[in-house]
Amino acid sequence: MTHTELLGMPSERSRPDEGVGHYLRDIVNGACDGVVTTLAVVAGVTGAAFEPRVAIVLGIVNLASDGLSMGASNYLGLKSELEQRGASVEHEAPMRHGLATAFAFVVAGAVPLLAFAFRLSPAAQFWFATVLALATLAVVGGARSQFTHRPRLRCALEMVAVGGGAGAVAYALGLLVDPLLH
Predict the structure, then answer these.
(1) In the chain, where are the structural domains located?
(2) What span, in angstroms and rounded, lies between the C-alpha atoms of 46 and 175?
(3) Measured between alpha carbons, how far is 27 from 7 in angstroms, rounded to an integer?
(4) What is the spatial distance between Cα 169 and Cα 44, in angstroms, rounded to a whole number?
(5) Residue 50, SS3?
(6) What is the DSSP letter of 87?
(7) CA gap 103, 96 in Å, rounded
(8) What span, in angstroms and rounded, lies between the C-alpha atoms of 14 and 42?
(9) SS3 state at 39
(10) Residue 10 to residues 25, 64, 91, 146: CA-CA distances in angstroms?
(11) Which residues contact 87 (CB under 8 A, 6 or more apart)?
């Protein structure tokens, strides 16, 4: 039995044409977390009334450090699950899952930072970053429907609701913490 069959998924050999679909969980986790944490950084910085360049610095640091952390955590989590079930671990397979997570995190998470490439007011940058984040979540969610066979709009709205909710909480926390810093 292969490691994917032990995890309740058909083996790669039984679905050779699947490609990206084999990494769906990794890509969805990475992309959603990348967008949400970057939006949280932007929202927190905006809510606390910091300079927009703080969002850029923290956003880039977040992409690098949290992207690596997500990938490593996915690798170790999958490896642990396989070892717990007594499967022989194919080091390349769990490593590819970790890389897929990290890649999706960085690529999707970078999108909200594009708002800071334009000379806009801090408020306009925040709203532009928010629109970019929600659009990215909608695109990833909609693409997810291709593999889940669920309605595209439902999948898109689901990711937008989860990610947008997390961003709203970060913004509110920024508003609450700001008075403590001044």
Answers:
(1) 20-177
(2) 9
(3) 17
(4) 9
(5) coil
(6) P
(7) 10
(8) 43
(9) helix
(10) 14, 32, 18, 17
(11) 1, 2, 3, 6
- pLDDT tens, the chain, 182 aa long: 444 554 545 444 444 336 878 899 999 999 999 999 998 888 888 877 888 889 999 999 999 999 999 999 999 998 888 888 888 777 677 889 999 999 999 999 999 999 999 989 988 999 999 999 999 999 999 999 999 999 999 999 999 998 888 878 877 887 788 788 77
Tokens representing residue 124 in the block: 């306009």
Contact of 47 with 174, CB cutoff 8 Å: yes
Q: What's the CA angle centered on 35, arms 7 and 182, to 5 degrees?
A: 130
Beta carbons within 10 angstroms of residue 169's beta carbon: 14
Amino acid found at 54: V
